[in-house]
Every structure is written in C-alpha cells, then in structure tokens.
Amino acid sequence: MMGPGWGIGWGTGMGGGLLVMILLLVVIGFAIYFFMKNSNNPNNNLPSSRKDSTADAMEIAKARLAKGEITAEEFEEIKKKLLG
C-alpha cells in the first residue's frame, strides 16, 4: 500500500525535502555574499585605498623609468597626474 513514508527512509520525506531546501538557500546565500564581497565595486574605494593605489602607480612608474620604458619627461607627467 502506498501511504506516507512508503519506500522512503527516515528524513527524506517532507521534512527531509524542507531540510534540503533550507540547506540550498544557505549555500546560495553564502555564494551571493562571497561574490558581492569580492566584486570590484567602485563604491568600495575608500580614500585610504586610493592612496595605496597612487603609491602603487608611482612604484610602477619608477620601475618603468628605471627600465628605460619611459623618459624622465613622461615620468614627471605621470607624477603630476598622480599627485596633482
């Protein structure tokens, strides 16, 4: 006869399906949180991070000048744009 629980083990009936749905929602929630946290959102740029990126850009410009990839004049223009 086919009644509630026929052929279904413990925890896989209605309650088990609900548990799977809750677990799935939790996993999806964590995935959304992870992707939103790690996205490159321009609103996340704080003044301190802007200073860090300027310092990084200056280091790159210095390295390029040292390698001879840019001239001293080009370096000065980059420096003015970054610091000005």
In words, what does this structure look like?
It is a single chain. This protein is mainly alpha-helical. Helix content is 68%, strand content 0%. It has three helices and no strands. It has helices at residues 14-37, 47-67, 72-83. Helix 2 (47-67) runs antiparallel to helix 3 (72-83). The longest helix has 24 residues, at 14-37. The termini are far apart. The mean pLDDT is 77.
Features:
84 residues; mainly alpha; 2 domains; 3 helices; 68% helix
Compose a concise summary of this entry.
InterPro entries: SHOCT. With 84 residues, this protein is mainly α.
What is the CA-atom radius of gyration, in angstroms?
28 Å
* Average pLDDT rating: 77
Classify the secondary structure makeup into a structural class: mainly alpha
Series of secondary-structure elements, N-terminal to C-terminal: HHH
Overall number of structural domains: 2
